[in-house]
């Protein structure tokens, strides 16, 4: 996802390919100056360019050779690209469609919990609503980034940071819901670990969006805070195992699903970092089937698995939790 950002050439040199206008004959009426929206289309068909034609800050994967949207400097033109096929179409829709689904699932889960778990508390409902909301935020920010990444250097950098913020938000949703199930009957421990993960997430978000911590100099620091926030999730799991034992935690916390979620994310990261399959046949997977698209699909599947895990853990705690037994 992350690209190397450098100063971009002028838009007339990189994308629009505008010719220097010829002098008008006497009495001729000048045509309306071309706008970014207009020059992105040629005879009604969208203009797509190759990897070598886009500025360096826009270049990310040298194995994706063609079908890039040109730099537009236009929000309207970026969103208009939802209507035609290019090499970010699958990345956009693979997160846009699930974002809409998770948003709709807010109401569906509320009704489902009311029917199947009539004694579910307000906190129970809130946990599911919060997790679904974090999924919507993460996928929505990702969709917006891939939509606007060809706008300009400044806009692309901004939305890339917000894309990372979305990942932290979804991680927060994972941990808050998981901690709730691990310590379903121990509210004090729940609050302690919630305070920990919320604090770490807020610190990481501030680092990601603060201009002071951008650039190569702070890259290692940013990565360490990002990874550290993710690894902090092991603390409540280990604590839960020490209290309840491994077998009990497997059913009480939804751990098998969380392990499955982690496996999907690791698999997706492997495809993404190795650039498989496009590194094997450059140009063959420009629009469909590249590593980034595989990663996106696996991220969505991992989110669904996490949701199933939360539901499985809640079902156990609702029916067998020590604080609910007579």
TrEMBL record:
Transmembrane parts of this sequence: 92-113, 125-146, 158-180, 192-209, 221-243, 255-273, 294-314
Keyword Transmembrane: yes
Membrane topology summary: Multi-pass membrane protein
Biological-process GO terms, alphabetical: intracellular zinc ion homeostasis
Residues involved in Zn(2+) binding: 292, 296
Subcellular localization: Membrane
Entry's family note: Belongs to the ADIPOR family.
Organism of derivation: Aspergillus kawachii (White koji mold)
Keywords of the record: Membrane, Metal-binding, Transmembrane, Transmembrane helix, Zinc
Protein name: Hemolysin-III family protein
Assigned GO CC terms: membrane
GO molecular function: metal ion binding; signaling receptor activity
């Amino acid at each position: 996802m992350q690209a190397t950002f450098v100063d971009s050439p002028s838009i007339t040199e990189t994308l629009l390919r505008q010719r220097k206008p010829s002098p008008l004959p006497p009495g001729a009426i000048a045509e309306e100056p071309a706008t970014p929206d207009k020059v992105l289309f040629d005879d009604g068909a969208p203009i797509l360019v190759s990897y070598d034609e886009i500025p360096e800050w826009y270049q990310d994967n040298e194995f994706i050779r063609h079908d890039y949207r040109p730099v537009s400097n236009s929000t309207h033109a970026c969103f208009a690209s939802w209507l035609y096929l290019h090499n970010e179409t699958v990345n956009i829709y693979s997160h846009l469609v699930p974002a809409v689904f998770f948003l709709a699932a807010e109401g569906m889960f509320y009704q489902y919990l009311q029917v199947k778990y009539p004694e579910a508390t307000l906190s129970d409902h809130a946990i599911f609503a919060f997790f679904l909301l974090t999924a919507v935020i993460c996928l929505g920010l990702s969709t917006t980034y891939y939509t606007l990444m060809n706008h300009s250097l400044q806009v692309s950098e901004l939305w890339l940071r917000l894309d990372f913020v979305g990942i932290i938000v979804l991680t927060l949703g994972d941990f808050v819901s998981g901690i709730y199930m691990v310590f379903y009957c121990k509210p004090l421990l729940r609050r302690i670990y919630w305070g920990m993960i919320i604090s770490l997430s807020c610190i990481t978000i501030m680092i990601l969006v603060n201009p002071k911590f951008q650039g190569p100099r702070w890259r290692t620091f940013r990565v360490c805070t990002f990874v550290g926030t993710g690894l902090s999730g092991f603390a409540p799991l280990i604590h839960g195992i020490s209290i309840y034992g491994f077998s009990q935690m497997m059913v009480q916390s939804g751990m098998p699903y969380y392990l499955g979620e982690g496996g999907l994310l690791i698999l997706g990261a492997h495809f993404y970092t190795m650039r498989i399959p496009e590194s094997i046949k450059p140009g063959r997977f420009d629009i469909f089937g590249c590593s980034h698209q595989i990663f996106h699909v696996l991220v969505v599947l991992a989110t669904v698995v996490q949701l199933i895990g939360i539901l499985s853990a809640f079902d156990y705690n609702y029916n067998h939790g020590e604080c609910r037994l007579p």
